[in-house]
Amino acid sequence: MHSASEQSEAADQPTPPARPGPPDHSYPDHWEADVVLRDGGTARIRPITAEDADRLVSFYEQVSDESKYYRFFAPYPRLSAKDVHRFTHHDFVDRVGLAATVGGEFIATVRYDRIDDRGLPASGSADEAEVAFLVQDAHQGRGVASALLEHIAAVARERGIRRFAAEVLPANTKMIKVFTDAGYTQKRSFEDGSVRLHLDLEPTDRSLAVQRAREQRAEARSVQRLLTPRSVAVVGTGRAPGGVGRTVLRNLLGTGFTGRVYAVNAALTGTADGPVSLDGVPAHPSVGAIGEPVDLAIVAVPAERVPEVVADCGEHGVRGLVVLSAGYAESGPDGRERQRALVRQARSYGMRIIGPNAFGIINTAADVRLDASLAPQMPAAGRIGLFTQSGAIGIALLAGLHRRGAGLSSFISAGNRADVSGNDFLQYGYDDPGTDVVLLYLESIGNPRKFTRLARRTAAVKPVVVVKGARHSGSAPPGHRVPVTRIPHATVSALLRQAGVIRVDTVTELVDAGLLLAAQPLPAGPRVTILGNSESLGLLTYDACLTEGLRPLRPLDLTTGAVPADFRDALAAALADEASDAVVVTAIPWVGEDGAPEFGDGEVLAAALREAVASAPLPAKPVVVVHVEMGGLAEALAVATSTRPTAPGRPTGTAPDPRPAGTPPGRAAAPDRDQGGDRNPSGDRNQGGTGTPTTTPTTTVTPATTGTLQEAPAPDGPAAVPAIPAYPAAERAVRALAEAVRYGQWRRQAAEPGRVPEYDDIDEAGAAALVERLLGGAEADARGVTLDTRQAGELLARYGIAVRPALPAPTPDAAAAAAARLGYPVALKTTAPHLRHRPDLGGVRLDLATEGQLRTAYAELTEVLGRAAELQPVVQAMAPRGVDTVVRAAIDPAVGAVLSFGLAGAASELLGDVAHRLVPATDRDVAEQVRSLRTAPLLFGWRGAAPVDTPALEEVLLRVSRLVDAHPEVVAVSLEPVVVAPHGLSVLGATVRLAPPAPRTDLGPRSLPRY
Predict the structure, then answer these.
(1) pLDDT tens, 186-212?
(2) What's the pLDDT tens digit per position in 50-65?
(3) What are the angstrom distances between the C-alpha of 508 and each of 426, 489, 734?
(4) Would you state the pLDDT for residue 622?
(5) What span, in angstroms and rounded, lies between the C-alpha atoms of 45 and 487?
(6) pLDDT for residue 706
(7) Mean predicted confidence (pLDDT) in 850-868
(8) Among residues 123, 10, 143, 122, which one has the least CA distance to residue 70?
(9) d(CA 596, CA 233)
(10) pLDDT tens column, 541-550
(11) Which of 326, 426, 457, 704 is most deeply buried (CB count within 10 A of its CB)?
């Protein structure tokens, strides 16, 4: 690809005389970005400057003759001094060049030159540019050109360029594909033996979809590379047993890591007989001394030595780092700067980092068996992916899951999460076929807008359960770079739930929900059967169901004389009952023949319950057990057995998919890697094998005492009965079940999403012009402006929202004149800030039917509350009686535009009874929003009152959502009160605030957070 000016240079034609143009701009450092490439590695994109001459020459020398020919349309073996000068000197307006670098060296370049409609160099108002790429052959296929196109397009838009032109040889199919796959609106033609492409640079739905799909693949791959290394070096392995490095080395070896393991210690120089050995592993003084490729380095050296380790790793091709070392941002300002330098250094070599101050990573896949962590025990293999930002919480979660028989597919404890974050783990979990449930312990959300988007997509195929620490501290944990949010924690939680996230409050609830979702199908509804041998425990479970919004059936009391066979028969009947969606089994020790309680028959009861589940008809229903002092029951239930026959179908209430019936939500058919063939279920790092199976007369069971949660296939290959989660308290079991019910409902609704309605009376163009005029155009004050009543009404009217006029009444005569103009009856209201929307303070007089009543009310207000100049009274025509509500929308810097709704009044504010939805809201969103309030019954005819016009209310919510979505300058809207009557509604007050919009990071080119 080439530009017209480059063709002339290639043919040794005289260079055109220098043209007048804009003055050189200062170096645009905001164009610098780190990006994740298709293969999971990273590269830095930055502007090319005059100091890059030598780098450019070196880069060009490494490009093949074929690639040079595609670039210049002619043999071009080397760059002349004139070429080098042209390609490294830019004004950053009409001529811009960007380079992708790894290790400080160029691996690809892109440039644009502004041109006029004749294809000649131009400046000023010309809005087209010619663009050209060159990618080093060794880095082709990594998605470098696609990333550069996103960034050069963003730069061009910033500089007023709206279209790119490119000329490509027909044989250069890779570059043609870069353009055609980008998703921009484009035109193609064939001229003089080359393909001529024109791209409109305005982002489209397709270009954003392409960009996000590439982002997902790249970020998922970057985490996969960290979790599936072929070789690992532990840097900082001490000579003596113990210590962080030596512990990680021992864990790697003890769990049977399938790749190569190396120990690195700078103090080890080897002997004449070769390198020394630590725990039977060759030890080297540096990564470079290993002499073989290393995919992953575990860094366990003091913080001051980490930079030399990173350089050693980067210079020798290491792909990723897990930095266990402490002494970074958690230690204060110096540590924060040390952390920034660490990230910048690692990214300069194309490496991603887990940490610093990390606890480690685990991958239980049979073909990997990676335990590069400080965990005291390797977790069993399972279907749960776990991400934490805290080592201590990570230990607690691993122990809790192991104790209850659950296994993991992968585990990352990210520490300060300077680089790899929960967003990256979501990208990986979405793709990973070995993960059915994603559990996240987060202390901060670095990019909430992105997190919400990723969580919504992942939750559509598998559950995402989140517990967030540091909810009320008002600050992020040390070392965590997060945007400041102005909205309360409860609002963030509501928005996460809107995205399908299962939001819990404690790590215990995280484990409880994870166990159920990993092992049981989703319930088709909220109807719950309760059965057991304790009437009291059944009633406690019944009450817990009502508290959680479930619909429990009357508990079935089997009496204390019930034996396992009675449980089996009752459970089988409940699972066959079409009036039930889920079953809770409650169990206490039963009384033996001698009158003594039987505490040790838990395994017998577990076998009976599994037998009932195995024979149950499809679709499958979730079963949970609440037990009190039942020895061995929880352990015996925490296994998957092979008694269930395979049958077609799927659980009711889940999206259609090809999985076997009864498979837990999000689960694919279990791959061979999860059959436990060469795992070590006991967690003993010094033993091999699969453990010794124990059998019952009707089932093949892997004992839960090994801590496993795996399938034991029968010889004829039937599908496994899933493990049945057991809980020591009714409240915990029901809370987990309720989360599954709500999530199942969300999944069903997500399969048929709502729509954003179109309204013929919306004047979007007129509103945009009005916003620009009111904001002041280019001279806009960055602090923004609050519109007066007339301006706010005019803007809202462009979106079909009518605000009842309120006329100022500075004197009694003015009030009477206003009332005569509006027509009686009227309301007299104060608008002073300290009295606004506070009818409880007496600043409102309603239903004034005559001038005499109006003057009397005016006199009372001024006598009780103060002078008219302070009260700022207004007169407004009376609206039909109804329910007073409040509609608001605001732009939050962290989560974006949020639409809020609640009933007016102090009670709702005190109780926090406000519902929130992300913008743009759909018709389904606002319908749920209106009905989600605790005070919603007031809108639907509570205590015999007439129901109000909720369709009209929902329409106003949708129109406000459309307004703030289409015009990011509208940073706040408040309609208060909105009186909703049985027929129609009235907006009695409105406040609108405008401000220059903040950059939308989610709409820009892909990039990692800046350091």
Answers:
(1) 888 888 888 999 999 988 889 889 999
(2) 999 999 999 999 999 9
(3) 21, 20, 14
(4) 96
(5) 34
(6) 31
(7) 90
(8) 10
(9) 59
(10) 999 999 999 9
(11) 426
- Bridging pattern class, strands 277-278 and 281-284: antiparallel
Please name which of 126, 100, 111, 93 lies closest in space to residue 27, comparing C-alpha atoms: 93
Other CB atoms within 10 A of residue 7 CB: 14
Please state, as a whole number, how many other Cβ atoms lie within 10 Å of the Cβ of residue 540. Answer: 19
Q: What residue spans of 192-267 are helical by DSSP H? A: 205-227, 244-254
Beta bridge partners of 373: 360
3-state SS class at 180: helix
Is the CB of residue 915 less than 8 Å from the CB of residue 840?
A: no
- Structural element, H or E, at residue 235: strand 231-235
Amino acid at 694: T
Strands of 231-235's sheet, edge to edge?
277-278, 281-284, 260-264, 231-235, 296-299, 320-323, 352-354
3-state SS assignment for residue 32: coil
Cβ atoms of 640 and 628 within 8 Å: the answer is no
Q: Which residue has the tokens 């120089």?
A: 269
Q: Helix (H, G, I), strand (E, B), or coil: what is residue 62? A: coil
DSSP string covering 444-489, please? --S-HHHHHHHHHHHHTTS-EEEEES-SSSSSPPTT-------S-H
Coil, strand or helix at 517: helix
Higher pLDDT, 577 or 1001: 577
Residue 941 Cα distances to 880, 882, 935, 948, 957, angstroms: 16, 11, 11, 7, 21
Contact 71, 77 (CB under 8 A): no
d(CA 289, CA 308) in angstroms, rounded, equals: 14
For residues 482, 486, 487 and 493, what is the CA-based torsion angle, rounded to 10 degrees? 10
What pLDDT was estimated at residue 780?
A: 60
Q: Which residue has tokens 């590269």?
A: 43
- Mean of the per-residue pLDDT values of the chain: 84
Return the residue matching tokens 């685990």: 362
148 pLDDT higher than 60: yes
Q: 309: closest CA among 279, 288, 278, 336?
A: 288
What digits encode the pLDDT tens for the residues 407-451?
999 999 999 889 999 999 999 999 999 999 999 998 877 677 788
Q: Is the peptide bond before 75 cis (omega within 30 degrees of 0)?
A: no
Please tell me whether the overall predicted TM-score, pTM, comes out greater than 0.85 for this model: no
